[in-house]
Amino acid sequence: MKPRSISIASGKGGTGKTTITANLGVALGALGKKVTILDGDLAMANLAIVMGIHHVKTSFLDVLAGKVDVSSAICENYGIKVVPTGFRFEDVHETLAKFKREKVEKAVKELLAESDFLLIDAPAGIQDATIVSMAAAREMLPVCNPSHTSLVDVYKLIRYGNLLGAWTRGLVVNRVGKKAEIPTSEIEQFMGRTLGNIPVLAEIPEDSKVQEAELEGIPVVVYEPDCKASVAINELAKFVAGEADLPYAPQEARDLNETTRRIIQALTGRRA
Ligand code: ADP
Ligand code: MG
Q: Which of 8, 140, 195, 256 is 20 to 30 A from 130, alpha carbon to alpha carbon?
């Protein structure tokens, strides 16, 4: 199998990118895959915390600064490799100021040579140097929440990913099951109408165990393997690894629902 690089991306912060990167990584590892996860959120790094790594001696910032090889920045926990990014404001500031995309691409290539899957925890949005970690991956896995604003963001993100050559197979809807939200069928219809066939690969339920696990510094799939969120993430891992069929049949959009109609109009200025 060819190694796969996937950036876990979203339009805005807080959709669950870091949570999905860590837990999908650990779940793929448990399926016997060689997995590396990289904190590509250079400015707002926190993947190490979710992975229970509290002492980061060498980080991806040192790699980007040219101080060390990426191999010296690899930590291991919960059966997978983790390349953390440092938190020190001065380091972040300095690295972003002298940022070179070739350095990210070189590191990604080296990490891929040792992995079946490289998951990159991407920064939110589509700005400047920060999007390079997204561009360095061949595939993008967008994470959105079931809200109008999140959908509009993810639409832009997928279009941007296409421009960068990061292919989107489908998306993850996270924090599903709160009171007011858009149903998956409408999300798929909106995607089908605007971007082509982009199915929802997983619906991850809102689950307080995710936050409990985060406080403990243990990925939720390890902390509480049977909770709703862990079950959904493990299913997603099987699909990503190619061991399960697509969970939802993509829908052909015929009668436009109100959500799709409104968002298309907002994005294009035309009535759908
Ligand atoms: P991002 O990396 O996109 O900014 P995070 O993964 O850090 O988002 O998630 C933001 C917050 O939401 C975290 O505190 C996380 O524990 C919480 N969270 C993420 N997914 C879920 C979920 N399915 N259920 C409950 N809380 C969640
Ligand atoms: Mg994050």
A: 195
